[in-house]
C-alpha cells in the first residue's frame, strides 16, 4: 500500500467526519490503510480550508482529497498544496474563483431550501423534523434520526465565503452527482462537474448523503481516483 496516496475525507454542513463511516470501512476492507477524516469547525471557508491544509501538510507523500457537500468548497480552496494529487467531489460544491456555495445555491434553489432555519447565534440548521426528507431520504429511519439529532450547524455566513484559487483548475478531479439531491440541486452538481472537466463523472440515484447510502459506488469512484 506504500504506492497508494493517503485519502483525506472532508465532510460538509450539518454533519461531521463520522458521516464518512461507511466509506471508511469500505476503503479499509479494500486495502486502503492511510485514511484520515477532517473535523471542520464550520466557522468560515478560510478556517475550514486551513484545518484541512494542516492535516494534509502532516502527511508524508501524495494525498487524495475527497469532499462531500460543502466539503467540496473546502477541498477546492485547500487542494492547491503540492502533495495533493487529485480531488474527488461527492454531491459537492465546486466553486470557481470569486464564487461561494451560497451564490451557487441561489442560482438554482434545491428542493429542501425552505427547511433551513437560522438560530439567534447565527448558525444555520436543518429543521430536525425535516432532516431525513431533506438530507438523507434514502437512509434507514434510525440512521437518519441519528444524523438529524447530531447535526453540526455552520455559521450561516460561511455560505457567502468565496473561493480564491480553485484547485480543480490545476488538479485532476472526479465527480459524483446525486440525482435525487434535495440540498444541492442536481443540475447545479452537473453544471459544476461539467465545467471542471473531470476524469470521470458518476450519477447515482441517491439523496444528498450518498456517502452513507451508496458507500460502495462512492468508494468505486475514490478508487478510480487513486488509480489515476
Explain what this protein looks like in three dimensions.
There is one protein chain. The chain is an alpha/beta fold and 228 residues long. 35% of the residues lie in helices and 17% in strands. The protein is built from nine helices and eight strands. The strands form two sheets. It has a six-stranded parallel sheet with strand order 2-1-3-4-7-8, with helices on both faces. Strands 5-6 form a two-stranded antiparallel ribbon. Strand 7, helix 7 and strand 8 form a beta-alpha-beta unit. Helix 1 (21-29) crosses helix 9 (215-227) and helix 2 crosses helix 3 (71-78). The chain is globular, with a radius of gyration of 16 Å. The two termini are 15 Å apart. The model has no long low-confidence stretch (mean pLDDT 97).
Amino acid at each position: 500500500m506504500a504506492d497508494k496516496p493517503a485519502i483525506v475525507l472532508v465532510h460538509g454542513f450539518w454533519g461531521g467526519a463520522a458521516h464518512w463511516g461507511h466509506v471508511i470501512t469500505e476503503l479499509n476492507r479494500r486495502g486502503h490503510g492511510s485514511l484520515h477524516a477532517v473535523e471542520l469547525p464550520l466557522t468560515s471557508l478560510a478556517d475550514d480550508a486551513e484545518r484541512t491544509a494542516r492535516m494534509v501538510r502532516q502527511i508524508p507523500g501524495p494525498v487524495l482529497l475527497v469532499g462531500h457537500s460543502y466539503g467540496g468548497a473546502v477541498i477546492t480552496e485547500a487542494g492547491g498544496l503540492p502533495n495533493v494529487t487529485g480531488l474527488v467531489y461527492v454531491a459537492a460544491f465546486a466553486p470557481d474563483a470569486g464564487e461561494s456555495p451560497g451564490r451557487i445555491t441561489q442560482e438554482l434553489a434545491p428542493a429542501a431550501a425552505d427547511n433551513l432555519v437560522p438560530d439567534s447565534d447565527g448558525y444555520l440548521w436543518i429543521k430536525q423534523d425535516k432532516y431525513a426528507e431533506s438530507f438523507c431520504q434514502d437512509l434507514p429511519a434510525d440512521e437518519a434520526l441519528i444524523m438529524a439529532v447530531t447535526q453540526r450547524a455552520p455559521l450561516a455566513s460561511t455560505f457567502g465565503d468565496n473561493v480564491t484559487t480553485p484547485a480543480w483548475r490545476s488538479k485532476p478531479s472526479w465527480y459524483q452527482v446525486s440525482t435525487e439531491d434535495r440540498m444541492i440541486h442536481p443540475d447545479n452538481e452537473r453544471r459544476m462537474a461539467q465545467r471542471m472537466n473531470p476524469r470521470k463523472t458518476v450519477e447515482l440515484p441517491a439523496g444528498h448523503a450518498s456517502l452513507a447510502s451508496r458507500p460502495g459506488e462512492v468508494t468505486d469512484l475514490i478508487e478510480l481516483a487513486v488509480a489515476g
